[in-house]
Amino acid sequence: KQEVTQIPAALSVPEGENLVLNCSFTDSAIYNLQWFRQDPGKGLTSLLLIQSSQREQTSGRLNASLDKSSGRSTLYIAASQPGDSATYLCAVRSFTGSARQLTFGSGTQLTVLP
Amino acid sequence: EPEVTQTPSHQVTQMGQEVILRCVPISNHLYFYWYRQILGQKVEFLVSFYNNEISEKSEIFDDQFSVERPDGSNFTLKIRSTKLEDSAMYFCASGQENNSPLHFGNGTRLTVT
Q1: How far is A76 from chain B (nearest CA, A)?
Q2: Number of helices (H) and strands (E), helices first, in chain B?
Q3: What pLDDT score does A58 carry?
């Protein structure tokens, strides 16, 4: 059964810092990995999707990497802003069991201080 | 940009009642999902729907739950005989293909009293 872990659970940084969020998964047989942002009481906003054959994806100040063999992904946020404050969720779609569902981590709660 | 819309945003119901949560997926998407998030816990999969039938369901999705696509646009989740532990945020999601990114709605917060 796929398990997804995110470290740290919470992170607080001053504005302008670059930061890295970590995600690990137990079963490397995945279709893809998706990073989401969740604001308090809100839905999930898709940030980046990395297919299993890819090593990284970039969107603006965000860069996500994937090392499937070691079961790890990172989300790099450059020049952080207070508006980046949110919970960031990592989710993997796996071969084992079903390919149709995402397995989520618990998230990293990010606070960017002005 | 097209988005997944869910109604209502908040539903309060008494234990034992039936509720229907509604979703309008993105129009050209073919795969539809329900997920839920109990307060303070992980987002967890409930059910996936494709070609007018359930393609997969989790252990959570027992006979208390059902899904339907009554017309070409709506996708509903019905919860019968609600229990206190059904209180959660319920998210609808859709995807264009099986391996495409999932797009989530803003959720319906269900409170069972």
Answers
A1: 19
A2: 0, 11
A3: 97
**Which candidate, B46, B39, B57, places its Cα nearest to that of B93?**
B46
Residue A97 confidence (pLDDT): 60
Which B residues 47-76 touch A at CB under 8 Å?
Answer: 48, 50, 55-56, 58
pLDDT beneath 50, residues of chain B? none
Nearest to B91 among A31, A44, A99 (CB): A44
Mean pLDDT of A51-71: 96
The stretch A106-114 carries a mean pLDDT of 97
Complete DSSP assignment for A69-99: TTTEEEEEE-S--GGG-EEEEEEEEESSS-S
Q: What is the per-residue DSSP string for B10-62?
A: EEEE-TT--EEEEEE--TT--EEEEEEE-TTS-EEEEEEEETTEEEEE-TT--
Strands across the sheet with B5-7, in order?
B5-7, B19-24, B75-79, B65-68
Write down the residue that tokens 């816990």 correspond to.
Answer: B41
Token pair recorded at residue B22 = 């509604």
Mean pLDDT taken over chain A: 93
Return d(Cα B99, Cα B26) in angstroms, integer. 16
> In whole angstroms, what is the distance from residue A4 CA to residue B37 CA?
15
Half-sphere exposure for B17 (CA within 13 Å, toward CB) = 12
Shortest distance between the Cα of A44 and any Cα of chain B, in A, equals: 6
